[in-house]
Fold this sequence. Notes:
The protein is of the alpha/beta class. The chain contains 16 helices and 14 strands. Bound molecules: adenosine-5'-triphosphate (ATP) and magnesium ion. The site of magnesium ion has 3 residues, from helix 1.
Amino acid sequence: xxxxxxxxxxxxxxxxxxxxxxxxxxxxxxxxxxxxxxxxxxxxxxxxxxxxxxxxxxxxxxxxxxxxxxxxxxxxxxxxxxxxxxxxxxxxxxxxxxxxxxxxxxxxxxxxxxxxxxxxxxxxxxxxxxxxxxxxxxxxxxxxxxxxxxxxxxxxxxxxxxxxxxxxxxxxxxxxxxxxxxxxxxxxxxxxxxxxxxxxxxxxxxxxxxxxxxxxxxxxxxxxxxxxxxxxxxxxxxxxxxxxxxxxxxxxxxxxxxxxxxxxxxxxxxxxxxxxxxxxxxxxxxxxxxxxxxxxxxxxxxxxxxxxxxxxxxxxxxxxxxxxxxxxxxxxxxxxxxxxxxxxxxxxxxxxxxxxxxxxxxxxxxxxxxxxxxxxxxxxxxxxxxxxxxxxxxxxxxxxxxxxxxxxxxxxxxxxxxxxxxxxxxxxxxxxxxxxxxxxxxxxxxxxxxxxxxxxxxxxxxxxxxxxxxxxxxxxxxxxxxxxxxxxxxxxxxxxxxxxxxxxxxxxxxxxxxxxx
Length: 517
Ligand SMILES: Nc1ncnc2c1ncn2[C@@H]1O[C@H](COP(=O)(O)OP(=O)(O)OP(=O)(O)O)[C@@H](O)[C@H]1O
Ligand SMILES: [Mg+2]
């Protein structure tokens, strides 16, 4: 049933239940994004699995989050279970071959997969504000913090780097405000408290080095299949903002790093956003606008983004409008909101005269869906009532031993397992403070030296810089014409110097605020 340039999704049926035709997703429209929706238990994850298998077989790497652990089975050979064989027969899938897929497991906590990290600097102020649910004032302070760090050559890698920088900003708020814009000490304090909360939630595992290299989720195997990166997200889901922010960060990394390719034969990567409502829940308008923009523009970088969610109303309309390939599983329609969702879902399809979409959506069985994909010159196909094919890999989770086995032979084994703590803002600021302290102390000691024989002159290195008068304990007067540099002044000068130093290599941030390379 596999054909060049297409992946088989399932078989549609006529109103009398007889087989209509196979339904495909065309690879050349794989970067025109997609949507998989349906109430709980209707078959979304299995559909995601089927699509991921198809892309992988076509040599397209896939990234997806495994929210319940049940997607991990994609790394194991399928088993001839009755319900799968029955489905294969219903849709005329001959032969129904089983297959295991090249999987790379990832985990922000490093428990069920290879560690995934990024640095504060790479994430940038916009997404970090989202992660901390920052108020406008706090966001302003974070923006300034990144400006100071970006311009001052202070790498912000982990949480303690940002803590150190915020300390510094709090201590020098007045002076820094003159240079960078108003810094409210109260906001600095509240961000510091938010950082502590993030730390308690385990976010410190996520910030640091070695940071994830995009190329590691774009691997293919020797036999030409795309790697399927599966992010363990069961624990991560307990912290929905971290989950959502992480996926947005990854999307923005892909966007910033990949070159333009126009409309390729097949996508360079396909990205599945499961539980997509978590990206948009209470997200500030500006963030939604930026996401909309990234989704629109990332297409020409050959990346397909597929949102998976229970309710089509979970995805903002501007984003929804860009999702060309659609699989709509059953929805319930008891409450007014549910009825509205059914209507929205039905209205987005190109109608089929054989049935009424809104009615059928509430009647679909498990693993059955309304399917419409892009065809011809990129127009949506007429919607068809479709039985989704059974996966070739296992439906259900891997055991811990199987997962460990997959991880042992993974191509990224050893690359991300250990933390690497290089010199960054925390160490630099600590060293700077120490140096200033030493300098200050030296100056104080010098100032405390009694003046030699009433003269203001000393001869260095001839022994007369030792106190020679009995009045050595007297409080010294400041030497005329000399004003001791305060700690703050020294820090400001060194910050200004760094700004000057870095003018040639100013950091540029992209749409979602991550680094542009
Ligand atoms: N295409 C299919 N072929 C055969 N069986 C299927 C298919 N799709 C779903 N099923 C059956 O339905 C079950 C539930 O499907 P699935 O886990 O994909 O639902 P879901 O929509 O992801 O649910 P949830 O919202 O709870 O995550 C599967 O475990 C499987 O038994
Ligand atoms: Mg599911």
